[in-house]
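Subgroup meeting minutes
Present: P.N., E.W., G.H.
Scribe: E.W.

1. P.N. recapped why we're keeping a running log of single-chain structure predictions: easier to compare across weeks, and new members can see raw inputs and outputs side by side.
2. G.H. added today's entry (247 aa).
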Amino acid sequence: MADVPANHEQSFLRRLTLGTQPVLTRIAHGSAPFITTFVLIHLTAPVMANLGGTSLASQVMLLGREYYQTPFGEKYLVLAPLVIHPLSALLKRVLSPKPARRLSSILSITGYSAAVIVALHYYTHRVAPMDPAPPIYAVGPSELDYEYVKFGLQQWPWRSWLGYLGLTACVAWHATEGMAIIWNTWMRPHLGSLPGSKRSRTVGAIVGGVLPVATGMFFMWREPLLVFASHADRFKAAFSRSPFYWF
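Output recorded in log:
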């Protein structure tokens, strides 16, 4: 069998890489609204702690779980978009002959950072507490409320504050950068430029997204821990399973 000419292989690879870019762009952009919806619902709980402390935050979280912790919702409305979005962006960068933006751009830094922190966050708050083995004994959904978050804030204050606020800041900043790109790609031809400057949108994300979460966490952190000693031991064991709390 005759060898395939090198220029033919290069031409095929070039067509493949160029052909996948629009598809990956649509996948990355199409998964973003699902993530945004989840984030807004999820962050409403700590924001409401500004008004009613840990109790109100836990109540709002339970309402939010009706959307994102059902058998269908968690798999297809939350986890799937959270995996598809960074994976499609990574594939787009790897397959692109010339990436649209540098790896050192704000969008890339916040996006890849958020992907790592979200994975740690999910493991710490969803996977580890469900371990049925002792001493955790599978902390159930009815037990896993914002007292768990408060316990982490009080037991490991520096790491917990850094983790929660770092995650919120990365997600908010990335969403601001990404929203401008999605708008310019799909909406600008019909509705014109996105209102406001890049700086004003960034400030708005910090003031409107990060600051209310930080103050809500502060109010929860100041409250006394309202769990039995046995529950506190299970919480500590669950947190200790996460690499972020190993030391």
